[in-house]
Amino acid sequence: MYGSNDNLTDTAASPSEPRSLNASSYGVLAVTVTWLIPADTGAGTQNSSLLDEYQLVYASDALFSVNVVGPFSVSRNLLSHTVSGLLRDATYYFRLRASNGAGHSAYAPTVSAVATGSHCLFRSSHFSSKFVGDISCPVCYFSGINVLFEYFFHDSSIECNRHN
Length: 164
What we know:
Layout: E1 19-25, E2 31-36, E3 53-59, E4 69-75, E5 80-83, E6 91-100, E7 103-104, E8 111-114, E9 121-123, E10 131-135, E11 145-149, E12 157-159
Antiparallel strand pairs: 1-2, 2-5, 3-4, 3-6, 6-7, 6-8, 9-12, 10-11
């Protein structure tokens, strides 16, 4: 017997895999992954409120054995996620699964994309005439740019060393 506050919509089975997984280069050194809701979210229906989350994993090889990142959680209400801060001209492989209270789906078929983008160039006009230290690239937000210049000219440009 159920109390008046019990939810009878609990899922009885794990969801099917997310559909139509796709990955494409987006902006500077980023990849956007998109998908469609699973055909079965665990109760024989297609209802995102029955999902807990999506779990996204990416790596630099198709076997997911090198430079693996994740899984990390993506809201059940989203059908895309952008991964940024990637290396230029590197291929990344992505896989995604859905989860609910009963468990995880299988991973959708793996997709890949190449992170593209030009070198990050930015103007030095916001610095004083002498600057020593680390700064963050305002284009890709990489924070390991070591700068040691006696003089910065207002019209000079800096190239983010992450992309060299």
